[in-house]
TrEMBL record:
It holds the Pfam family BTAD. Gene3D superfamilies: Tetratricopeptide repeat domain (1.25.40.10). InterPro entries: AfsR-DnrI-RedD_regulator, BTAD, TPR-like_helical_dom_sf. It comes from Microcella pacifica. The lineage of its organism: Bacteria, Bacillati, Actinomycetota, Actinomycetes, Micrococcales. This is SARP family transcriptional regulator. Residues 33-175 form the Bacterial transcriptional activator domain.
Length: 180
């Protein structure tokens, strides 16, 4: 009953974007929703032959910011949690794909920004750290690559009492297990 009451109090412009469908309510398909746009953009980045993001640096930074947004962060309904988890995984993969694409386009600073955003979103995701390490190595910044590795190894050890994979250790030339 509260929802019905709230809907009747909406001004006509706001009411026009809400559709009554057999399953309940939904936003009109023509209504612009940043989540829809971000999801479509993220999915496009993961297509095998996705179009190159030949966009300005400002547009890419805006896209990175869009991919960093959580879905309804203070909602705990089951449907929100499931959708938020799907979005979390999609955006992590999309940020990594964007970093790889920007790297191949020789746009290292933007690529590093995408990789760092992936790390901020998922601090224990090894593939995001590997992407940033590779970017530093390509740029000739071995010290930065080792620094990223060491911070990740410490965080991983502190959080899960595990070490980075052998593949990541090999990437930076660290033999054996990570330091505790």
């Amino acid at each position: 009953m509260r929802l019905r009451s709230a809907l009747t109090r909406l001004d006509p412009a706001a009411r026009s974007v809400v559709e009554l469908v057999p399953a309940g309510l939904r936003l009109d398909a023509a209504c612009a929703v940043d989540y829809r746009d971000a999801r479509a953009y993220a999915q496009g980045l993961l297509e095998p032959e996705h179009p190159s993001p030949h966009a300005s640096a400002a547009e890419i930074r805006t896209s990175i910011a869009l991919l960093c947004l959580e879905l309804l962060p203070d909602s705990y309904d089951d449907w929100v949690l499931d959708e938020a988890e799907d979005w979390r995984l999609l955006r992590a993969s999309a940020l990594e794909a964007l970093a790889a694409t920007l790297s191949t386009e020789n746009r290292p600073h933007l690529a590093m920004g995408a990789a760092r955003a992936a790390i901020r979103n998922e601090p224990l995701r090894e593939t995001a750290h590997a992407a940033l390490i590779r970017l530093h190595l390509v740029a000739g910044n071995q010290n930065e690559a080792v620094r990223v590795y060491e911070r990740f190894a410490l965080a991983l050890h502190d959080a899960l009492s595990v070490s980075p994979s052998a593949a990541l250790r090999a990437l930076v030339g660290v033999p054996g297990a990570a330091r505790s």
